[in-house]
Specification:
By secondary structure, this protein is an alpha/beta fold. Helix content is 41%, strand content 22%. It has two domains: 122 residues, ATPase, nucleotide binding domain (Nucleotidyltransferase, domain 5); 160 residues, ATPase, nucleotide binding domain (Nucleotidyltransferase, domain 5), CATH 3.30.420.40. The two termini are 21 Å apart.
């Protein structure tokens, strides 16, 4: 009998969940979302409640923070302050009496896109997740690259200028979704949510478009740098705002102009990054958590 897995993506504000079964042609079903609990005890209770909606053989979790996913140890929980220096994986296994795996959310996004999304069939790639923070994941030689200290893909704290300007110069301050909406509020005097802001963009409002173009301009140098360092096949733009096609289209146009300016100045060609939108959208982390679960359980069975 093929296994059924509960897959859970814990974010800063929402917990998304779904179920995965190979008998359902590898699709997610029974999906939903709820608010993030504000304590570890309540979070574990919620996971128990969600996973019990179906008869499952295990639970696959995507969550923020620095995680040793081999040992299932959370050094910290990022946006979850109550997760620090504990093994969420082991505690939940004891609590649920089920196999549980835990992986960083940005790394899950990369695993998901490589398994069933925009990086499928590619041996290398980067996923940049634009949200409350800037997370991501890196695929090298068909495998997730976690790094020597499990921080590969933690793009939020990349510096965009000299150290004296810290923390105003870190990438997350310049390119989180909050910074985009904050820049519009400062320019227009109106506070909008993301949906209403992109309505203005798609309606052709000059102020909204100008803010978006400035926002994307600060993304371009980082894409250029990441491509130079890792030389990947594709760079995928993920996160909630990636559902707005105008975001990736603006990045693609500005990046092309950026490369043209560089090549004119140095009088030689450089390797261009191929930037594409996410295929899986908000489901990337859910699929990635499943991919990590299946891989880890298989390794345990082989040993």
């Amino acid at each position: 009998m093929k296994s059924k897995i509960c897959t859970i993506d814990i974010g800063g504000t929402l917990v998304k969940y779904a179920f995965y079964s190979e008998e359902m042609e590898g699709k997610l079903f029974h999906q939903g979302e709820v608010s993030v609990p504000q304590s570890k005890e309540c979070l574990y209770q919620l996971i128990e409640e969600l996973s019990s909606k179906e008869f499952v053989s295990g639970v696959a979790i995507s969550m923020p923070g620095l995680i040793d996913s081999d040992k299932g140890y959370n050094f910290h929980g990022g946006a979850l302050p109550f997760i620090r220096d504990i093994s969420v994986e082991k505690e939940l296994q004891n609590y649920l009496k089920l196999p549980v795996t835990v992986e960083n959310d940005g790394k899950c996004a990369a695993l998901g896109e490589h398994w069933k999304g925009s990086l499928k069939g590619n041996k290398s790639g980067i996923v940049i997740v634009l949200g409350t923070g800037i997370g991501g994941g890196i695929i090298v030689d068909d495998k997730l690259w976690r790094g020597a200290h499990f921080s590969a893909g933690e793009f939020s704290f990349l510096q965009t200028d000299k150290a004296e300007k810290f923390p105003e110069n870190i990438w997350v301050i310049q390119n989180s979704v909050l910074s985009l909406l904050g820049a519009y509020e400062k320019a227009s005097g109106e506070r909008l949510n993301g949906y209403n802001y992109f309505e203005r963009v798609n309606q052709g409002e000059a102020c909204a478009i100008e803010i978006l173009e400035k926002y994307c301009q600060t993304i371009i140098p980082q894409i250029y740098n990441l491509q130079l360092i890792l030389d990947v096949e594709k760079i995928v733009i993920g996160g909630g705002i990636s559902r707005q096609s105008v975001v990736v289209k603006t990045i693609q146009k500005q990046l092309a102009d950026f490369y043209q300016q560089i090549e004119e100045k140095i009088e030689m060609k450089v390797v261009h990054a191929e930037v594409v939108p996410t295929t899986l959208g908000n489901d990337a982390n859910l699929f990635g958590a499943v991919a990590h679960y299946l891989s880890k359980i298989q390794r345990k069975e082989e040993n």
